[in-house]
Design a protein that fits this description.
Elements: H1 2-6, E1 26-35, E2 37-42, E3 47-50, E4 56-57, E5 65-70, E6 73-76, E7 79-80, E8 86-89, E9 96-98, E10 101-102, E11 106-113, E12 116-124, H2 125-136, H3 143-164, E13 172-173, H4 189-197, E14 201-204, E15 218-219, H5 229-233, E16 261-264, H6 265-279, E17 289-297, E18 303-310, E19 315-319, H7 320-328, E20 343-346, E21 350-354, E22 365-366, H8 367-375, H9 380-387, E23 392-395
Parallel strand pairs: 1-13, 15-22
Antiparallel strand pairs: 1-12, 2-5, 2-9, 3-4, 3-8, 5-6, 6-7, 8-11, 9-10, 11-12, 14-23, 16-21, 17-18, 18-19, 20-21
Helix pairs in contact: 2-3, 2-4, 3-4, 3-8, 3-9, 6-7
The chain binds zinc ion.
Residues 221-222, 246, 249-250, 366, 368-369 line the site of zinc ion (ZN).
Length: 397
């Protein structure tokens, strides 16, 4: 099945017809990291299995039960259930909650160090997307924007599962590091409909007959000019993930214009050094910040690289998203930059970030542009193909 995603057949129509799905790929979502215990509630006896114990149904009391990893193996309450990886398979979808949250699919508890484990949800990708699409978009948005998001999120998740997870026991995070996934309670009728009606549909790109899925980025609001994934993240350049001048399409977003946001140079120095330390980069030893300047812009005049100069005259060149991450590092309740699309104005003790546009990284599909197009009557196929130039739509399963 995965091989078909690497080289999907040519000649498919851009209009795809969903059909019933027999063989839907599984996505492994890391819900929790390095836990010492979780609380499990089961309204029907789940099947419990570990590396050393065969599958067996296990009744639960009508109350949360603590699951932990002792030195000699797993305990569900006081009951030993073997060692290695622990699998909890609900008897019915939604009948098992972990720390109060229910998810479709099965739960895998994977030991990561002495007494600690990760919680990974194995879930078919369409069940996963039913929660992702409604978590990523506003409830009142158009059906066609929901379907566009379903296709893009499906492509992104399959790409991550196929390419980035080699040697890992999980594929995606459950938050904005991958895609926001809120489990069953986050699903809506609209998201379920959008996923069902686009089931199996993905974006792919490449020479005819050799099209492959790619990392189909999306973000909240591009601010009128998107940036390429190459400029944003240093990803390999491909045309579907190039920069685009969209114009004021997404000015229906409250984030289309923002600023000025003022941050003191002392605070920026603290944040940038903390970011440098977290990445093992030279910025960790930066002197007091003196100024921030735009170093390069893209062909539509959106900044894609900034130059940070410290009080000793030493210069640090940061990519657009690196700059945003560095300026927002450990911001706590302090001011944060919504995007890297801004103009810095250097005052004596502070930097004013003015002429701000957009929210998020601005690469790939802009969600607010997608909603604006849907409101203007666009079909979801046209929304995604405009967002990713030269890409095509295929059935992956
Ligand atoms: Zn936009």
């Amino acid at each position: 099945m995965w091989a078909s995603l690497l080289m999907v057949p040519a000649g498919c129509s851009r209009t795809v017809i969903p059909s019933s799905v027999a063989d839907v790929p599984i996505v492994r979502v890391r819900l929790l990291e390095s836990q010492e215990k979780v609380l499990v509630t089961a309204s029907a006896p789940p099947t419990i299995q570990s590396t050393t114990n065969p599958p067996a149904p296990m009744p639960f009391p009508n109350a949360p039960v603590e699951v932990r990893l002792a030195s000699d193996g797993w305990r569900i309450g006081d009951v030993p259930v073997g060692s290695g990886e622990l699998i909890v398979k609900p008897a019915l979808e939604g009948s098992v909650a972990i720390n109060g949250q229910s998810y479709r699919g099965t739960y895998h508890l994977v030991p990561v160090s002495a007494g600690k484990f990760d919680l990974v949800n194995y879930v078919d990708i369409d069940s996963y997307l039913k929660s992702v699409v409604s978590s990523e978009l506003l409830a009142g948005w158009q059906d066609e924007a929901y379907k566009a998001q379903a296709i893009v999120a499906r492509t992104y998740a399959l790409y991550e599962a196929r390419t980035n997870s080699a040697g890992r026991y999980w594929d995606v995070y459950a938050d904005t590091r991958s895609q926001v996934y809120g489990g069953i309670k986050a699903e809506s009728d609209k998201s379920i409909r959008a996923v069902t009606e686009t089931s199996g549909v993905v974006l792919a790109y490449g020479p005819a007959g050799q099209e492959k899925i790619f990392k189909a980025y999306f973000s909240s609001c591009c601010g009128g000019i998107s940036q390429s994934a190459y400029d944003a993240f240093g990803d390999p350049y491909i045309e579907p993930l190039s920069d685009q001048n969209v114009g004021p399409m997404c000015n229906i977003s409250p984030h289309f214009n923002w600023g000025p946001i003022d941050i003191t140079k002392a605070e920026l120095t603290r944040r940038i050094k903390a970011w440098g330390a977290s990445k093992g980069r030279a910025e960790k030893d930066m002197g007091a910040l003196d100024r921030i300047d735009i170093q390069y812009v893209n062909r539509f005049n959106r900044p894609i690289r900034f130059l940070l100069t410290d009080a000793n005259g030493k210069r640090y060149s940061l990519g657009s998203e690196e700059t945003r991450w560095a300026c927002n590092m450990d911001a706590k309740d302090g001011p944060r930059l919504k995007s890297s699309f801004f103009r810095p104005v250097n005052d004596a003790d502070k930097v004013s970030f003015v002429d701000g546009h957009g929210f998020g990284h601005g690469a790939g599909m802009c969600q607010w542009c997608a909603e604006a197009r849907a409101e203007a009557g666009w079909r979801h196929e046209d929304i995604v193909l405009t967002s990713f130039p030269k890409a095509k739509l295929f059935r992956a399963y």
